[in-house]
């Protein structure tokens, strides 16, 4: 088993090297202009505003010139440096790091890792660029090193159970029934209740995984004073924090305030400390300590005995006040930690110093199928038992090194735990999709086990409408193209056909006065270049009425994970003579795309190209079987 962790450490090293290499390729030896074009730098930027957030951290708002409109890679939660140049386009020493709070096309809010605004911030010539964030690799490496050495005790047992070698244990308890849950959800709740080591909730799309997990956490809190709840992404953690808050649970969110949603901010340690009854005293102590220190430091080199003594007294007093402040700060933090029923953080966030040394009877890990194994172990080393929730038939973890992925990094601890134990329950009743939308996914990924709840089983946008349509572009000559800059694939004619179909479909819905009942439309493309082509065609060319545009999102598959829309369009893009389908062959990703639709799913693609892959061949059979096949010729002539 030690060897397993050593192998994992080697894979993680490869991944980090690849990540760093990609970063360096974008950053080193390039001018600000080039970096800007690559989307990793904004220069120059203007300082619009500085303020302190609710947790008293310094936040700056910057904007870039109107003519700088290139797409960029900044996003909320990314580590950046704010820098100043001497005006000659060279970087100076003046930099401060921070975390992106919010960013759009022109503006960015950054929470600085600095207590006060440095003077140079006001001098202009500012820029912002992405930094390589090593901290999560460091924490993952640390935990693997630790695990490789553990050869006895509870963690050793858990290692054997999760990775194979020992059986997971379950208590014999009288069954629980939660009235709000359906049969398979209650089964999952009972499994969690009885689990001594591990329980796994497998939640296919729309089956109420989050609902079940929240109920399981609430049940656990009836027996345990405190639990740790984690997920790989900040967004997933915040969703759980929000839902637990709605049930009146006292939740403490550990994590950088810039990385949490506005709603969750009040639950972060920073803000909770700032609202603690003893916080005023803490601030006073810190202020006084600083005053004494400043006074003491005023005495310069040449001074006599009396002054020397005075200086010593002042500095001693400053030190003693600082010690008092540190103690009070420690007390406040502990007081908040003690009163919290749930501590919530990302997997890597579980390495935070604030919860160092703490242990929990139960650790919950949501979206576990999207997490790298090393990251999962960070909270598990604090646990007596672990509850996983996720779906290994949806998006896998993001891995940059192809080699590391293939050599094993892509296999998640969630998958290993399912394989090595009989400790999982699959939720079977889904509350999102029309049966026709559900059935294909159910047959390919879930052994035909999914059933549609009666309220959604036959819903459509209007009476008589088909829930699924496949529009075949074979023979239309719509060939894919590659964007020379981004190397991403797009298919302009297919984007236009999508626009034509959507426009006609909207007219049909309007004709039966059902348009107000359509709340949301999603247009999904597997390639970024195709989303850009769609934005241009559908939105910027005003191809659709604004009432529809306001309800429509266009994006890649990953950004739709966890979400749903009344109507979903998917453009498959690939159309070539060789039958190459690139990462369309990642069928788990396509499972996510197809299962976002509630009432209508329209897939557009070239059957001659995609049909060479068995998954799409099965899809073509399926659409033929349910009478959902149409040719693009119906729309272009
Ligand atoms: N037992 C239930 N009875 C009625 N509605 C339910 C039940 N369980 C879940 N739902 C509803 O189904 C929808 C999906 O639930 P939830 O968000 O918990 O699903 P999920 O499995 O986490 O979804 P995702 O596909 O995003 O992973 C929600 O609208 C929820 O209210």
Automatic annotation (TrEMBL):
SMART domains attached to this UniProt entry: AAA (SM00382), DEXDc (SM00487)
Gene3D superfamilies: 2.40.30.270, P-loop containing nucleotide triphosphate hydrolases (3.40.50.300)
InterPro entries reported for this sequence: AAA+_ATPase, Coronavir_polyprotein_1ab, DNA2/NAM7-like_C, DNA2/NAM7_AAA_11, Helicase_ATP-bd, P-loop_NTPase, SF1_C_Upf1, SMUBP-2_HCS1_1B
Helicase ATP-binding domain boundaries: 177-428
Enzyme Commission identifier(s): 3.6.4.12
GO cellular component: chromosome; cytoplasm
Major localization class: cytoplasm
Pfam families: AAA_11 (PF13086), AAA_12 (PF13087), SMUBP-2_HCS1_1B (PF21138)
Residues in AAA+ ATPase domain copies: 195-384
Location in or out of the cell: Cytoplasm
Enzyme class: hydrolase
Alphabetical keyword list: ATP-binding, Cytoplasm, Helicase, Hydrolase, Nucleotide-binding
GO molecular function: 5'-3' DNA helicase activity; ATP binding; hydrolase activity; RNA binding
Keyword ATP-binding listed: yes
Highest taxon of the lineage: Bacteria
Entry's family note: Belongs to the DNA2/NAM7 helicase family.
Name listed for the protein in its UniProt record: DNA helicase
Lineage of origin: Bacteria, Pseudomonadati, Bacteroidota, Cytophagia, Cytophagales
């Amino acid at each position: 088993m030690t060897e397993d962790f050593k192998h994992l450490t080697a894979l993680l090293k490869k991944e980090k090297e690849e990540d760093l290499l990609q970063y360096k390729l974008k950053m080193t030896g390039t001018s600000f202009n080039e970096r800007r074009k690559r989307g990793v730098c904004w220069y120059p930027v203007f300082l619009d505003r500085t303020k302190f957030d609710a947790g008293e951290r310094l936040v700056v708002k910057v904007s870039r010139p109107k003519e700088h409109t290139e797409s960029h890679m900044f996003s909320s939660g990314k580590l950046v440096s704010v820098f100043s140049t001497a005006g000659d386009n060279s970087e100076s020493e003046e930099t401060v790091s921070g975390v992106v709070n919010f960013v759009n096309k022109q503006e960015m809010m950054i929470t600085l890792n600095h207590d006060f605004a440095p003077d140079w911030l006001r001098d202009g010539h500012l820029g912002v660029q992405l930094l390589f964030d090593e901290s999560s690799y460091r924490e993952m490496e640390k935990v693997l090193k630790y695990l490789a050495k553990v050869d006895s005790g509870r963690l050793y047992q858990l290692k054997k159970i999760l990775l194979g070698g020992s059986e997971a244990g379950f208590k014999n308890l009288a069954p629980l029934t939660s009235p709000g849950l359906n049969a398979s959800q209650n089964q999952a709740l009972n499994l969690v209740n009885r689990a001594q080591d591990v329980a796994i909730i497998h939640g296919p799309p729309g089956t109420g995984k989050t609902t079940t997990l929240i109920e399981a956490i609430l049940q656990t809190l009836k027996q345990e004073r405190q639990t740790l709840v984690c997920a790989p992404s900040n967004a997933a953690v915040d969703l759980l924090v929000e839902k637990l808050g709605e049930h009146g649970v006292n939740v403490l969110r550990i994590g950088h305030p810039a990385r949490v949603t506005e709603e969750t901010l009040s639950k972060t340690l920073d803000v909770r400390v700032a609202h603690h009854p003893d916080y005023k005293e803490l601030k006073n102590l810190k202020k006084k300590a600083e005053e004494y220190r400043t006074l003491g430091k005023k005495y310069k080199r040449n001074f006599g005995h009396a002054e020397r003594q005075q200086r010593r007294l002042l500095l001693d007093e400053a030190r003693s006040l600082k010690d008092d402040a540190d103690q009070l700060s420690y007390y406040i933090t502990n007081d908040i930690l003690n009163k919290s029923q749930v501590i919530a953080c990302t997997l890597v966030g579980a390495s935070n110093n604030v919860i160092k040394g703490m242990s929990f009877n139960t650790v919950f890990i949501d979206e576990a199928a999207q997490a790298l194994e090393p990251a999962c172990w960070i909270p598990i080393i604090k646990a007596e038992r672990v509850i996983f929730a996720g779906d290994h038939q949806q998006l896998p973890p993001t891995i940059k090194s192809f080699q590391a992925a293939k050599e094993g990094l892509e296999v998640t601890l969630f998958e290993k735990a399912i394989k090595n134990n009989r400790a999982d329950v699959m939720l079977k009743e889904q509350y999102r999709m029309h049966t026709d939308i559900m059935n294909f996914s159910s047959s390919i990924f879930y052994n035909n086990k999914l059933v549609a709840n009666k309220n959604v089983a036959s819903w459509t946008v209007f009476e008589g409408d088909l829930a699924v349509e496949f529009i075949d572009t074979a023979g239309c000559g719509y060939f894919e193209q590659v964007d020379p800059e981004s190397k991403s694939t797009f298919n302009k004619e297919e984007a236009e056909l999508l626009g034509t179909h959507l426009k006609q479909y909207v007219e049909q819905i309007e004709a039966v006065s059902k348009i107000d009942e359509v709340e949301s439309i999603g247009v999904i493309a597997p390639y970024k270049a195709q989303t850009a082509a769609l934005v241009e065609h559908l939105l910027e060319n005003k191809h659709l009425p604004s009432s529809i545009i306001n309800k429509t999102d266009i994006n890649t598959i990953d950004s739709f994970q966890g979400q749903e829309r009344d109507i979903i369009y998917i453009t498959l893009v690939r159309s070539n003579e060789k039958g190459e389908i690139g990462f369309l062959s990642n069928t788990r990703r396509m499972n996510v795309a197809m299962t976002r639709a509630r009432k209508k799913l329209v897939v557009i693609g070239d059957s001659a190209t995609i049909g060479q892959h068995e998954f799409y061949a099965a899809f073509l059979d399926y659409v033929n079987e349910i009478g959902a096949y149409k040719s693009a010729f119906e729309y272009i002539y």
